[in-house]
Amino acid sequence: MPELEQKVRSAIPPGERLVAAFEVSRSLASSRSRGGSSRAPDSRRPKVLVGQEKEGDGWARFVARVFRVFTSDVPSPQRGTSIEGPSLRGGRQKDKEPFFGGWDSLAGRFLIAGQPQSKTGAAAVVAVTDVCMRFVYVQYRRVRGGLGEAVELGVSFPHDAVVWTRRHAPKNEMQFGFSDGSWGTLFVSGEEDFIKHFPGTLGHKEPIP
Asked: How far is CA 189 from CA 15, 53, 104, in A?
């Protein structure tokens, strides 16, 4: 989407070159284990684009809340341990879980950044530059459609933080494996751009490394 890429490019710090950009959102993948859900606790999710509300945003938020109630879409519990031990990794790996590592791991921080909270529409985009990977939040109009004016820069991760990528499902659900042994899953809208940048992405039938 050229307009979205242009918005992202405008937020990149001077001196950095945008290499790839793909929009992400929370994975809907189910978990067999109690701790493997990819939905971040609301208390951890970043509040973005504060004060940038548009006409109709309040009504859109109300409809979204009603939908979550009817679909029992609840956030992950705030577990007592925020970093999961290596002893749990083998079982999660075997079960091909969508998330492992805990919310303070690299994967946890990545998933949290991909699930922003906002009173206005907010698209989360992973911007890969020649320096690092950065989250960029771009406003969109929930009622009228199209992009808004507001853009906000989020957290960044070094390139070598991601050591492998894998499809969690045949299409769009992508896993990111990190250097600390954690991994997490996000829904990727810009799948074509994702695969161009991560050509070694494993298939969903292949095991988690």
From this structure: 27, 24, 25
Instruction: Look at 33 and 137; give whichever has higher pLDDT.
Output: 137
Give yes or no for residue 75 having a pLDDT over 80: no
Among 108, 85, 92, which Cα is nearest to 39's? 108
Look at residue 59 in the predicted model and tell me its pLDDT: 40
Find residue 123's DSSP bridge partners. 138
Residue 132: is it exposed, middle or buried by C-beta count within 10 angstroms (0-12/13-18/19+)?
middle
Q: What is the mean pLDDT of residues 32-36?
A: 64
Half-sphere exposure of 74 (CA within 13 A, CB side): 5
Residues 24, 182: Cα–Cα separation, whole Å: 19
Task: Indicate left, alpha or beta for 56 from its phi (over 0: left) and psi (-120 to 50: alpha).
Answer: left
Helix (H), strand (E) counts: the chain: 5, 7
Are 14 and 155 in contact by the 8 Å Cβ rule? The answer is no
Contact in structure between 97 and 33 (CB atoms under 8 Å): yes
pLDDT band at residue 69, thresholds of 50, 70 and 90?
Answer: very low
Residue with the two structure tokens 């091909």 = 96
